[in-house]
Amino acid sequence: MTILGALTTDPVRAALPEGVEVARGWLRRPHTLPAALRGVDRMYLAPTPDTVDEVLAAARDAGVRHVVDLSGEPESWWGSVTRAVEASGIAWTHLWPGDFFENALTWAPQVRPTRTVREPWPHAASAPVAMDDIASVAATALLDDRGARAPGPRPHRPGDAPPDRAR
Asked: Which of 70, 112, 116, 156 is surrounded by the most beta carbons within 10 Å?
Protein backbone atom coordinates (compact mmCIF):
# COMPACT_ATOMS: atom_id res chain seq x y z
CA MET A 1 0.00 0.00 0.00
CA THR A 2 1.31 3.45 -0.94
CA ILE A 3 1.10 6.14 1.70
CA LEU A 4 1.45 9.71 0.55
CA GLY A 5 3.22 12.08 2.88
CA ALA A 6 4.07 15.76 2.78
CA LEU A 7 6.68 17.83 4.55
CA THR A 8 5.61 21.32 5.58
CA THR A 9 6.51 23.96 8.12
CA ASP A 10 2.83 24.70 8.78
CA PRO A 11 0.44 21.73 8.43
CA VAL A 12 -2.67 23.87 8.98
CA ARG A 13 -1.82 26.44 6.30
CA ALA A 14 -0.74 23.71 3.88
CA ALA A 15 -4.37 22.50 3.80
CA LEU A 16 -3.40 19.11 2.42
CA PRO A 17 -6.09 16.66 1.34
CA GLU A 18 -7.45 14.06 3.70
CA GLY A 19 -5.36 10.91 3.75
CA VAL A 20 -2.00 12.67 3.35
CA GLU A 21 0.38 11.99 6.23
CA VAL A 22 1.80 15.35 7.25
CA ALA A 23 5.25 15.75 8.74
CA ARG A 24 6.51 19.04 10.13
CA GLY A 25 9.94 20.05 8.86
CA TRP A 26 11.88 22.21 6.45
CA LEU A 27 14.56 21.30 3.91
CA ARG A 28 16.51 24.41 4.87
CA ARG A 29 16.60 23.21 8.51
CA PRO A 30 17.96 19.67 8.16
CA HIS A 31 17.78 19.07 11.93
CA THR A 32 13.96 18.91 11.46
CA LEU A 33 14.18 15.99 9.01
CA PRO A 34 15.18 12.78 10.82
CA ALA A 35 11.77 12.25 12.44
CA ALA A 36 9.93 13.38 9.30
CA LEU A 37 11.86 10.92 7.10
CA ARG A 38 11.37 7.90 9.36
CA GLY A 39 9.70 5.17 7.29
CA VAL A 40 9.96 7.09 4.00
CA ASP A 41 10.91 4.90 1.02
CA ARG A 42 10.87 7.50 -1.77
CA MET A 43 11.00 11.26 -1.68
CA TYR A 44 10.69 14.30 -3.90
CA LEU A 45 13.52 16.78 -3.38
CA ALA A 46 12.87 20.42 -4.15
CA PRO A 47 16.02 22.29 -5.11
CA THR A 48 17.76 23.49 -1.96
CA PRO A 49 21.42 23.92 -2.94
CA ASP A 50 22.37 25.42 0.44
CA THR A 51 21.37 22.31 2.44
CA VAL A 52 21.19 19.53 -0.15
CA ASP A 53 24.10 17.52 1.31
CA GLU A 54 22.58 17.53 4.82
CA VAL A 55 19.10 16.70 3.47
CA LEU A 56 20.44 13.74 1.49
CA ALA A 57 22.46 12.51 4.48
CA ALA A 58 19.27 12.56 6.58
CA ALA A 59 17.40 10.73 3.81
CA ARG A 60 20.12 8.09 3.50
CA ASP A 61 20.27 7.64 7.29
CA ALA A 62 16.47 7.21 7.36
CA GLY A 63 16.62 4.49 4.69
CA VAL A 64 15.16 6.42 1.75
CA ARG A 65 15.73 4.25 -1.33
CA HIS A 66 14.87 6.64 -4.18
CA VAL A 67 15.01 10.42 -4.64
CA VAL A 68 13.19 12.30 -7.40
CA ASP A 69 14.76 15.73 -7.61
CA LEU A 70 14.08 18.96 -9.44
CA SER A 71 17.52 20.01 -10.63
CA GLY A 72 19.33 20.67 -13.88
CA GLU A 73 22.48 20.39 -15.89
CA PRO A 74 25.61 20.07 -13.73
CA GLU A 75 27.06 23.29 -15.16
CA SER A 76 23.94 25.30 -14.27
CA TRP A 77 23.13 26.88 -10.89
CA TRP A 78 21.13 23.70 -10.17
CA GLY A 79 24.33 21.67 -10.58
CA SER A 80 25.10 21.36 -6.88
CA VAL A 81 21.75 19.57 -6.39
CA THR A 82 22.40 17.25 -9.35
CA ARG A 83 25.90 16.35 -8.19
CA ALA A 84 24.85 15.84 -4.55
CA VAL A 85 21.96 13.55 -5.51
CA GLU A 86 24.21 11.48 -7.78
CA ALA A 87 26.87 11.21 -5.04
CA SER A 88 24.37 10.36 -2.29
CA GLY A 89 24.35 6.60 -2.85
CA ILE A 90 20.55 6.73 -3.16
CA ALA A 91 18.83 5.73 -6.42
CA TRP A 92 17.63 8.87 -8.20
CA THR A 93 15.55 10.35 -10.98
CA HIS A 94 16.39 13.88 -12.14
CA LEU A 95 13.72 16.24 -13.42
CA TRP A 96 15.36 18.89 -15.62
CA PRO A 97 12.48 21.00 -16.91
CA GLY A 98 14.49 23.90 -18.36
CA ASP A 99 12.07 26.82 -18.40
CA PHE A 100 8.86 26.98 -16.40
CA PHE A 101 5.83 27.91 -18.52
CA GLU A 102 4.48 30.06 -15.68
CA ASN A 103 7.54 32.33 -15.91
CA ALA A 104 6.10 33.75 -19.15
CA LEU A 105 3.70 35.68 -16.91
CA THR A 106 6.61 38.05 -16.20
CA TRP A 107 6.06 39.35 -19.75
CA ALA A 108 2.49 40.48 -18.98
CA PRO A 109 3.33 44.05 -17.89
CA GLN A 110 5.22 44.71 -21.13
CA VAL A 111 2.89 42.80 -23.44
CA ARG A 112 -0.34 44.49 -22.33
CA PRO A 113 0.59 48.04 -23.36
CA THR A 114 3.06 47.25 -26.19
CA ARG A 115 1.89 43.88 -27.53
CA THR A 116 5.60 43.06 -27.67
CA VAL A 117 7.83 40.55 -25.89
CA ARG A 118 11.30 41.91 -25.18
CA GLU A 119 13.92 39.35 -24.28
CA PRO A 120 17.73 39.59 -24.21
CA TRP A 121 17.99 36.61 -26.60
CA PRO A 122 14.78 36.77 -28.67
CA HIS A 123 15.95 34.20 -31.21
CA ALA A 124 16.94 31.57 -28.64
CA ALA A 125 14.53 28.66 -28.50
CA SER A 126 13.39 26.99 -25.29
CA ALA A 127 10.76 24.47 -24.32
CA PRO A 128 8.85 25.73 -21.26
CA VAL A 129 7.07 23.13 -19.14
CA ALA A 130 4.04 23.76 -16.92
CA MET A 131 4.58 23.11 -13.21
CA ASP A 132 1.52 20.83 -13.16
CA ASP A 133 3.18 18.66 -15.80
CA ILE A 134 6.43 18.53 -13.83
CA ALA A 135 4.43 17.46 -10.77
CA SER A 136 2.73 14.73 -12.79
CA VAL A 137 6.07 13.35 -14.00
CA ALA A 138 7.45 13.53 -10.44
CA ALA A 139 4.46 11.55 -9.13
CA THR A 140 4.94 8.90 -11.83
CA ALA A 141 8.65 8.62 -11.01
CA LEU A 142 7.88 8.27 -7.30
CA LEU A 143 5.22 5.61 -7.79
CA ASP A 144 6.64 3.54 -10.65
CA ASP A 145 9.85 1.52 -10.27
CA ARG A 146 10.43 1.72 -14.03
CA GLY A 147 10.97 5.49 -13.80
CA ALA A 148 9.45 8.17 -15.96
CA ARG A 149 10.41 9.53 -19.35
CA ALA A 150 8.88 12.72 -20.58
CA PRO A 151 10.38 14.18 -23.74
CA GLY A 152 8.86 17.60 -23.11
CA PRO A 153 7.29 20.17 -25.39
CA ARG A 154 8.53 21.42 -28.75
CA PRO A 155 10.99 24.35 -28.42
CA HIS A 156 9.91 27.80 -29.56
CA ARG A 157 11.21 31.39 -29.44
CA PRO A 158 9.77 33.85 -26.90
CA GLY A 159 7.83 35.82 -29.52
CA ASP A 160 6.28 32.61 -30.82
CA ALA A 161 4.84 31.61 -27.43
CA PRO A 162 1.13 30.80 -27.50
CA PRO A 163 -1.13 33.32 -25.74
CA ASP A 164 -2.60 30.64 -23.49
CA ARG A 165 -1.15 27.54 -21.83
CA ALA A 166 -0.53 24.80 -24.36
CA ARG A 167 0.36 21.24 -23.49
From this structure: 70
Q: How many secondary structure helices (H) and strands (E) does the chain include?
A: 6, 5
Task: Specify if 123 maps to a domain.
Answer: yes
Strands 42-45 and 91-95: unpaired
Q: What are phi and psi of 12, to 5 degrees?
A: -70, -50
Question: Is residue 138 within a helix (H) or strand (E), and if so which, with residue range?
Answer: helix 131-143
Q: What is the CATH number of the domain that holds 90?
A: 3.40.50.720
Q: Is residue 128 within 8 Å of 100, Cβ to Cβ?
A: yes
pLDDT band at 152 (very low <50, low <70, confident <90, very high): low
Residue 32 vs residue 128, higher pLDDT = 32
| Number of domains observed in the structure of the chain | 1
